[in-house]
Amino acid sequence: MEIGKVPENVLKRAVFRQIHTKRSEVLVGASVGEDCAAVQLAPDEVFVLSTDPITGATKDTGRLAVQITANDLASAGAEPVGILLTVLLPPSAEESLIRQLMQEVESACEELHIQAMGGHTEITAAVNQPLLSVTGVGKVKKGCLVTTGGARPQDAVVVSKWIGVEGTSIIAKEKEEELLTRFPVSFVEAAKGFDRYLSVVPEAAVAVRNGVSAMHDVTEGGIYGALWELAEASGVGLEIDLKSIPIRQETVEICEYYHLNPYQLISSGCMLMTVSDGYRLVRELKKAGIPAAVIGCCVEGKAKKIINGEDEAYLERPKTDELYKIYK
CB-based contacts of 229: which residues, under 8 Å, 6+ apart? Predict the structure, then answer.
């Protein structure tokens, strides 16, 4: 297609016709010529916003873009309402690619009951593969907003599901052919299927009901990066038991194959939470069908200690995510 805005007829066919999920709060949504979306909120509700691009994956990017943004909103205790989507495409892109991306977006929106309210779609020589950037809109009752900086000394540190599931799924999809020379088909298919665990919206809702003090979606930089950011935002130290951090065997083996550190691998689908009674939260999450574990506690001071049996180490500032090593 020619560089510039996506033609109106393509926009209508490939974008707007894929959007079916609607929310009553959205007064103005996606339409030709509309530059803004409008959302009606109640007097006792707080407007929550988040934005993120998808740059580390080339497959299922539409679904991933929606999921990551919904997770960011959920980590603030907010209910995701809608998204604004910017799609930048190279000149080689065909209309079928735009339609596929929007169908992936709408599929994720339908599952999460989120409306695609608008955005921008453009063909540009500035990118050599599709680039999606999503701004999320959510709502939360006043007094229920949760921040990354709310952790307190003596709080338990809890994580949901397993670390590295997003990175494992991305690597299994991007490197499927190579992995099949080393692992059985069933193993690779299981790893690819980890994308079904990427939503942290359900555990966020359970956590809010159980008095969570802080939440942080574990994304780039992995669990080590998320722990550092939560501790820095809250002004607390940490004592974390490395062996208590839950990890799937598929993640361990794929990381070993590519010489990656799973604790620094992108981990959407894993929510980091702090709360006064960690084991109670774990029980409530498990009642909701969500695996979870207490991995340590917050302490006074600034030291961020990782304990591995008799060995102790200290967290360093977050480094570049391990995922990017597979593209070198």
Answer: 148, 216, 221, 318
